[in-house]
Amino acid sequence: MNSASCAAKISTQPFSLNPTSPTSHDNPLVFPKPTSLFLGSTRKLRLSSSSKLNLHRRSGTVVAVSDVVKQKKSKSTPSLLITKEEGLELYEDVILGRAFEDMCAQMYYRGKMFGFVHLYNGQEAVSTGFIKLLKQQDSVVSTYRDHVHALSKGVPARAVMSELFGKTTGCCRGQGGSMHMFSREHNLLGGFAFIGEGIPVATGAAFTSKYKREILKEADCDHVTLAFFGDGTCNNGQFFECLNMAALWKLPIVFVVENNLWAIGMSHLRATSDPQIYKKGPAFGMPGIHVDGMDVLKVREVAKEAIGRARRGEGPTLVECETYRFRGHSLADPDELRDSAEKAYYAARDPITALKKYLIENSLASEADLKAIDKKIDEVVEDAVEFADESPVPSRSQLLENVFADPKGFGIGPDGRYRCEDPKFTEGTAHV
Amino acid sequence: MAAIFQGVGAAAALSSSPSNSFDSKKFVSSPCRPFSVRKGASFAVVRSDGRVNLNPKGRRAQQLISNAVATKSDSAAASSSSKPGHELLLFEALQEGLEEEMERDLRVCVMGEDVGHYGGSYKVTKGLAKKFGDLRVLDTPIAENSFSGMGIGAAMTGLRPVVEGMNMGFLLLAFNQISNNCGMLHYTSGGQFTIPIVIRGPGGVGRQLGAEHSQRLESYFQSIPGIQMVACSTPYNAKGLMKAAIRSENPVILFEHVLLYNLKERIPDEDYICNLEEAEMVRPGEHVTILTYSRMRYHVMQAAKTLVNKGYDPEVIDIRSLKPFDLYTIGNSVKKTHRVLIVEECMRTGGIGASLIAAITENFNDYLDAPIMCLSSQDVPTPYAGTLEEVTVVQPAQIVTAVEQLCQ
Questions:
Q1: Which candidate in A117, A209, A340, B207 could, as Cys together with A223 as Cys, close a disulfide (CB 3.0–4.6 Å)?
Q2: Whether B277 and A183 lie within 8 Å, measured CB to CB
Q3: pLDDT tier at A63 (50, 70, 90 boundaries)?
Q4: Which Pfam families does the annotation name (chain A) (predicted)?
């Protein structure tokens, strides 16, 4: 396993060309072309660090903003990145994500939820950083690691927990499960078990947004879609096909890569010829950004730009968030391949610890405030479990109800009536 | 409209030329069974036995005209309009249906390769891009899986896309999206999202197009839960099915056939749709039920002429709805004739015929006087050579022999 351990070591400082700054993966920064408004707001900040940059790339805006943000913070300017309200909102969201997932693990081992459950511990900064900037009408498309995306988007913890327990009160009536979280109300378009298959769906949602504005004349329709997926997906055809189409038609979408360096047991470096995923954006004509995905505030800054770009109709962006999952791929994964040094390295960069530190050091919140939130979230999660426990399991009659939106699709039976009119259908005992 | 509904006597119905029945001009479709769009909707329904049910709430009775059946005694009663209708080719009928739906509902859009500026590889979308613009008639890059998925995402968020596979075979690349997302998302989302998408394209065995361009995907897709599949065979039902598919809230796969695009027929001027779940009675008869769809309908009708001359009276049903099967029409026919022959272009293994045999045996076994016969294409990749290709698909002579065997 020599190569694996080498890979593990490299991954602790994968892309940094500046070995003295372990927290930034910067790659050679490039000045965006003057016509690009992408980093308009932070451009003046970058001017001061431009002396470090002496590399030229192909045209296209490939940037790592993390360095910029770090600069900004260290300048101790009076303007902070967030207000107190925002800070508490973000904190609550990351705590909810972590507490919920920890509870999922407990419930799984107690036999309350089954199948494949993929937990998000460690990656909360990406979900919170991006989704908290969205409106309700914006759409989110996720993968099988979707519990926290659902929570961040506003799906109640009760609904998600019930879904995991397979109860009728779940957000998908118990029919979807861990890997298929959907919410029409909150515009969460799934929850997909096969990697990559959600990306075209997200592209479609972005297409609808453009269509609504241009054809249906809803002039103020500026809905944005976020597609979340992992490093493994970035070697899949659907990823590239959608990058092409989104850039071609300037769709209002942001492709968010949650690069946690591992696809089950396959290291990203062993699977990818050029592991720097953000570089693949400019190849398709969109900016490619790399950001420290363990830091909520850095992610949020990048997200603001990317989402803003999409809202203004300037097209898609590819954002690569370097992040890490503290647990295995799923609750069934013994997680033996990953080097403990790597795990320790990222554990030290726990997004919750970092955010907490920021809030306290900048006097945005007190310990008491944060403890109150911790307690509140504990109660929310406990309540979710109780609710799910007490909810009913689906009865047999639910079996056939949602196969078709129009149940005439079951066809005409031998007696001439539509089969959906047969009482056995509503009982769920009919044979289709 | 009256021109379509001729008497059901053998002589009148089978007037197409013998050698290339599928290219016949003026193909006259025999009386079809009527339909009502929805229970509780307000349309006149003429049942195949001649009874007329008028829904008391008749609100939109004038908007849709049911394609009424003409029984032996009652040929012109169903026609509720005196307009002459207009003649067109099958691909034009598809285009007309699509265009009308796009005018009717702004959310209907088209996506596919070369559907826009090129007008579609079989000209089904000709002129639409000029009329509706490049966004509503979207020329996609060659990425079936992704643009099908994009269509699904668009459908989930409020549009009604019509996705074209330039050849049905290309949709094999979209199998992931069609199976996982198109079929399943309504269910796994607990009914929250509907996918009113239409996936259509030409398939079937053509003229020496080679194995990969001669595929019949209906057999591969039929197991996918949550989708409906229909196959059109005449300009009349092509337009009707296209419109019904677009209006349906379910995902529908519409199978067209490469060799049928130039069929000509006179169709009504008025707005009409064909029920997605119903089969079409092509030729009522007494001796044997022949179930078929798409291009094989024409081989069957050609064989039917020979059979009639030999004294047989076959009942020919174009099943049209490949999933789900219209067990009512099929069942009534089986109960009448007691013998069934299925003629299909699918391959023998796991094809539509195989499913149909299972369904009929399960439901109507007691009515059968003989085992069901099924004529399908050979289980071979369609050869390029013309002589081999000809024997890959079912030919009229085989149909005649099969009926003779069945009716012994």
A1: A209
A2: no
A3: low
A4: E1_dh
